[in-house]
Specification:
The protein is α+β, with helices and mostly antiparallel strands. 39% of the residues lie in helices and 12% in strands. The chain is built from 11 helices and 8 strands. A 3-stranded antiparallel sheet has the order 1-3-2. The chain has a 3-stranded antiparallel sheet with strand order 4-5-6, with no helix packed on it.
């Protein structure tokens, strides 16, 4: 059963925490929201303060304050310093309802990272058992059971794909720019995957940099696309040198009309390259 149609088990004791002041009302709301969005196989949710602010229609600063209050008591976060991206948030005592850890609770406070998680039985929170989370299919599970009979060398978990990293980076940049999540789906994901296959040497940093140029562009042709990922991929070379800005019209005295907009200062504020004016 998917989290979109299923039910959520919520401990009644959470309201005792609200009454005694150990948990704020906003903190409880944020915690419950994350519970509804977490992976039902692990109890891990990948998000950020900006994602919460957009979903609950609250200020980003309020979401950040709530996360800080929950950290170390109800959740454990693995943030990415210096980067505005979604990161893993482990939800303490989340009851797993799918996968190989069904009926166990996530011990978020004692887990070292999102790949090596600890779980305990719901009826005995003192007996924590370490489990390594592996997203594998039925055939792989059978192979793992056979390999347990023989000693095997430790393996390194597979890295996150370049496609997912780039898609997530642009997704987060859109949320920061417009204050809401984009409605991107399979079309954008497939187009990005095809683009990366054709241009294997283009890095995550370069795609993120040029997407930032698109978001900062004020030329009508590009601005009206409202941060479309498909538009970026179709006009990738156009954003190599910086954002494309609208040309200022001349005023009645023959001098450029003042619109309160400084292209160079705007580009510098975004940390972008020298802007170009749209022809």
């Amino acid at each position: 059963m998917s989290k979109a149609t299923g039910f959520l088990q919520l401990r009644r004791g959470i309201w005792d925490h609200v009454r005694d002041g150990s948990l704020t009302r906003t903190g409880a709301l944020v915690y419950i929201y994350m519970l509804t969005q977490a992976d039902t196989r692990t109890g891990v949710w990948k998000g950020s303060a900006q994602c919460i602010a957009s979903a609950l229609n609250i200020p980003r600063s309020t979401a950040k304050y709530a996360l800080k209050g929950l950290d170390g008591k109800y959740i454990r976060r693995f943030t990415v310093p210096g980067r505005h991206v979604c990161y893993p948030i482990l939800l303490h005592k989340f009851l797993v309802t799918q996968g190989q850890h069904v009926d166990l609770m996530l011990d978020a406070l004692n887990s070292t990272d999102e790949r090596t998680l600890e779980f305990f039985k719901a009826d005995d929170s003192q007996q924590a058992v370490q489990q390594i989370v592996q997203h594998v299919g039925p055939q792989r599970i059978r192979e793992n059971r056979q390999k347990r009979k023989k000693p095997a060398a430790a393996t390194t978990p597979p890295p996150v794909s370049r496609h997912k990293l780039i898609f997530g980076s642009c997704y987060e940049a859109y949320q920061v720019r417009f204050g809401t999540a984009p409605t991107w789906g399979g079309k954008e994901a497939k187009s990005l995957q095809r683009f990366l296959q054709e241009h294997a040497n283009i890095s995550l940093e370069e795609v993120s940099r040029r997407y930032g140029h698109l978001l900062a562009s004020t030329g009508s042709y590009h601005a009206q696309e409202h941060g479309s990922l498909l538009h970026l991929l179709s006009n990738f070379d156009a954003f190599a040198d910086g954002p494309i800005l609208a040309i200022q019209r001349a005023g009645s005295n023959g001098k450029p009309a003042s619109s309160g907009f400084d292209p160079v200062a705007t580009a510098a504020a975004f940390g972008l390259g020298k802007p170009r004016l749209a022809s």
